[in-house]
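Incident review: delayed structure delivery

Summary: a single-chain prediction request sat in the queue longer than the usual turnaround. Root cause was a stuck worker, restarted by the on-call engineer. No data loss occurred. The affected request and its eventual output are reproduced below so the record is complete for anyone auditing the incident later.

Affected input:
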Amino acid sequence: MGKIILFEDVEFGGKKLELETSVSDLNVHGFNDIVSSIIVESGTWFVFDDEGFSGPSYKLTPGKYPNPGSWGGNDDELSSVKQQ
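Output delivered after worker restart:
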């Protein structure tokens, strides 16, 4: 089982959302299009710009991603996350 932590602001600031399962629509958690930094504690995750695991995606392995450029994405774009 993996774990990913999404943050509202760059450098791991603001509200955070900890997940251990895939989420097809981050709006359910109030986190649609607001993610600006990520910590992957374990597992491999794909983050997607659109709901339903669609649109541009980025593969993330354990580590810290302090801003969208660190995973190759854009600020405030993520809408779904999927654990591999």
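Verification: The mean pLDDT is 98.
Action items: add queue-age alerting; document worker restart procedure.
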